[in-house]
Backbone:
């Protein structure tokens, strides 16, 4: 019965998608009708070419008003084509010009600064600050200050309050994000609101080029419905750069452990048609041959195992990825219409299992992915105040894991013959994974009187999972399909002149799994279909008492459906678990924040927040320390609570100091085991998770060092992680319990830019004191490393 109801809901969704497509065609038709209103588009900027956010453009006394967006772009539609068009903004002189148009036109405005403001202080709010002051718990990272460094996106995210990035090695290794006590797939990743997985399964925060990105928005706990996701712990949305002019951005970097990177991105803007072409390409390579400290190797003279230092010898990584966007913006029939295509190719040697005592010498994983997609957005769609954003994509994702040698390796690189392969301990294997992915999303906003907004969002995620092996005749192939339908409806209001903002929402989750296999892990029918349906809901509020004292709170009943890699495995070190259940959680968030501007160029800000999660069926990675293999499993009841804070100080554009800390404890709250006996892990911390950590960053900027167009930027970064247990506290004696020790990492960098930042050179030292650093299951991270980067920006 449930399956029939869900199927009916899915058919409704398909019908709705067709109706939406029909409405888009109607919109195109209406926009091109003879006698339709004239549309004027343009940009409001200052004399230096910088966009003026939220400038107002009006048509004399008609009452027709348009407000520029964050890029200074505006669009105004009028029934008569003559009059006086005026652009104005706080802190700028207004400018008017007469118009008498016979067709759509583009008109740009350049507003001069008001040279004298008596007893008036104007403080413009940046995009990052406005986002932080929304009703959601969100941090936003501006990439521009560090775009010249060799840092990747995961480095930047890992320096944020409440966030901890954990890797399994050097460049190209697997990583895990812990956000407000939840980690793994409880966190979702997006690029401009579209799921990152549309670029291919091997595209991540680690290898996405930095020079493509404008900022990173990190949502903690409650996730806005417009993202259309089942994220339970939060979401990371990467906002790409969208400049309005021709430019070229190229960089190369090289450093320790045989690491080299090259990035190229740019834009071609064709003036006559307005066509925009945005190509980009990224190349990355690393031998990852850093030193492993205190590993065990066999000593023939001592006739026993001894601890020593050895270099990694089978961990090389190579990736290439390309992307091209082609489309137009600010047309009468579309605010934005783009078609995109991407390709990625990754070749990764596999050095260890999930613990570093398991050493491999020959396995490798290769993957490649093609994707095609389109995005369409329009304001005042069919009626005034309605905006739509539609996207769709399809990705062909293939990977193969090669494990055909019967050997056992040690850290000396020596090996002995065995009767099994290295990863799974089975037969020789060349295992193929074909995972086609189809994504579709429809987002509709309808604003009423500028203080009420309705939002509807529907997203479809269909992932295939075809597996077969070229040489293992005992392996049973499969052809599974995991489909998700997520629908959200939200209502937002802004009261008391915007000082009070509220958002309430409800979400529907439908998951369908079609299993077509007969293997050792599946004892059921060769073909089986399971369908599940869930509901979620929540509310978030923000109240601005004064500029220096604001608060926000949110509560959500969240559901998180398992990802394909959790349920179906990763093809090498993670085994499938087809009985994995969805997570659900009650999430509470409360925060206080504010900005203090005493004048004289000094600015202070602070943020303090706490959270509570009551999680059922938490999806948790379990690793077998003997085999190095892992599998995802459910923990029936988990309590997560935490506190985090951040303080910052800025002096003009000279000094920046930021420090944050996070305390987060996840505990097993299931008093009995599945067999009815008392659980020895009851009230234990969830193992292998850091619970106290922090970051401090200091930046100094000096301009006009050698000439009027240069800039010197120096930075220091400190990261602290308190010790935590590797395994459950309840097993064995606490005095002999395995721990990951307290870690302190220091890094520095120096960037010199000249010719108005057209040319940039950066030198870096990471892990300055060569500390021994660990992450998941005590896997060692790289020691001290040196990097040099050169970046060229032309426009």
Residues:
């Amino acid at each position: 019965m449930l399956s029939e109801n869900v199927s009916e809901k899915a058919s409704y969704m398909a019908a709705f998608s067709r109706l939406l497509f029909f409405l888009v065609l109607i919109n195109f038709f209406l926009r091109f009708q003879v006698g339709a209103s004239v549309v004027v588009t343009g940009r409001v900027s200052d004399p230096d070419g910088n966009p003026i956010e939220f400038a107002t453009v009006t048509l004399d006394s008609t009452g027709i008003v348009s407000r520029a967006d964050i890029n200074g772009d505006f669009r105004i539609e009028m029934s008569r084509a003559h009059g006086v068009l005026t652009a104005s903004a706080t802190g700028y002189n207004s400018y008017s010009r007469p118009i008498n148009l016979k067709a759509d036109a583009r008109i740009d405005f350049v507003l001069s600064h008001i040279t004298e403001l008596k007893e008036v202080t104007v403080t413009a709010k940046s995009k990052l600050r406005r986002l932080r002051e929304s009703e959601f718990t969100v941090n936003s990272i501006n990439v521009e200050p560090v775009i010249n460094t060799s840092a990747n996106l995961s480095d930047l995210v890992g320096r944020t309050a409440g966030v901890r990035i954990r890797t399994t090695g050097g460049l190209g290794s697997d990583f895990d994000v812990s956000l407000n006590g939840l980690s793994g797939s409880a966190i979702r990743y997006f690029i401009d609101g579209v799921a990152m997985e549309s670029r291919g399964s091997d595209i991540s925060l680690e290898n996405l080029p930095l020079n493509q990105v404008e900022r990173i928005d990190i949502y903690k706990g409650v996730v806005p419905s417009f993202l259309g996701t089942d994220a339970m712990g939060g979401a990371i949305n990467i906002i790409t750069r969208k400049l309005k002019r021709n430019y070229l951005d190229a960089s190369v970097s090289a450093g320790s452990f045989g690491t080299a990177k090259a990035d190229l991105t740019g834009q071609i803007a064709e003036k006559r048609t307005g066509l925009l072409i945005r190509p980009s390409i990224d190349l990355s390579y690393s031998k990852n041959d850093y030193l492993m400290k205190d590993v065990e190797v066999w000593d023939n003279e001592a006739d026993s195992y001894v601890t020593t230092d050895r270099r990694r010898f089978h961990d090389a990584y190579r990736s290439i990825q390309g992307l091209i966007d082609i489309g137009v913006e600010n047309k009468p029939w579309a605010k934005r219409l783009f078609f995109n295509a991407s390709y990625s190719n990754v070749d990764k040697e596999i050095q260890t299992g999930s613990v570093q005592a398991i050493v491999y010498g020959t396995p490798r994983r290769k993957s490649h992915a093609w994707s095609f997609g389109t995005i369409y957005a329009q304001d005042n769609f069919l009626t005034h105040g309605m905006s739509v954003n539609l996207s769709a994509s399809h990705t062909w994702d293939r990977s193969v894991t090669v494990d055909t040698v019967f050997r056992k390796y040690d850290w000396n690189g020596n090996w002995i013959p065995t009767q099994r392969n290295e990863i799974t301990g089975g037969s020789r294997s060349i295992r193929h994974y074909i995972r086609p992915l189809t994504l579709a999303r429809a987002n509709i906003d309808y604003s009423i009187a500028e203080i009420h907004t309705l939002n509807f969002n529907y997203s479809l995620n269909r992932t295939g999972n075809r597996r077969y092996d070229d040489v293992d005749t005992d392996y049973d192939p499969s052809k599974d399909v995991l489909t998700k339908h997520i629908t959200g409806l939200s209502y937002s209001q802004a009261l008391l002149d915007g000082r009070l903002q509220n958002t309430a929402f409800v979400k529907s989750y439908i998951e369908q799994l079609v299993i077509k296999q007969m293997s050792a892990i599946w004892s059921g029918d060769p073909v089986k279909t399971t369908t599940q349906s869930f509901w979620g809901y929540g509310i978030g509020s923000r109240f601005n008492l004064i500029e220096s004292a604001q608060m926000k709170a949110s509560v959500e009943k969240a559901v998180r459906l398992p990802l394909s890699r959790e349920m179906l495995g990763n093809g090498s070190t993670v085994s499938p678990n087809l009985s994995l259940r969805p997570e659900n959680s009650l999430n509470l968030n409360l925060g206080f924040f504010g900005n203090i501007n005493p004048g004289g160029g000094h600015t202070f800000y602070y943020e303090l927040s706490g959270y509570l999660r009551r999680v059922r069926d938490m999806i948790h990675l379990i690793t077998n320390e003997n085999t190095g293999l892992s599998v995802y499993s459910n923990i029936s009841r988990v309590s997560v609570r935490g506190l985090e804070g951040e303080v910052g100080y800025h002096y003009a554009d000279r000094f920046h100091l930021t420090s944050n800390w996070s305390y987060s404890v996840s505990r097993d709250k299931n008093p009995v085991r599945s067999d009815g006996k008392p659980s020895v892990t009851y009230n234990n911390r969830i193992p292998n998770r850091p619970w106290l950590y922090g970051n401090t960053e200091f930046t100094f900027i000096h301009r006009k060092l050698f000439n009027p167009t240069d800039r010197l930027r120096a930075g220091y970064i400190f990261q602290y992680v308190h010790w935590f247990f590797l395994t459950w506290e309840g097993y064995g004696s606490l005095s002999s319990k395995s721990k990951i020790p307290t870690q302190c990492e220091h890094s520095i960098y120096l960037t010199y830019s000249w010719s108005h930042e057209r040319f940039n050179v950066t030198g870096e030292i990471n892990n300055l004191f060569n500390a021994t650093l660990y992450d998941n299951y005590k896997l060692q991270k790289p020691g001290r490393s040196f990097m040099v980067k050169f970046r060229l920006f032309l426009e």
The longest helix spans residues 2-31. The two ends are 61 Å apart (CA to CA). The mean pLDDT is 83. The first strand starts at residue 38 and ends at 45.
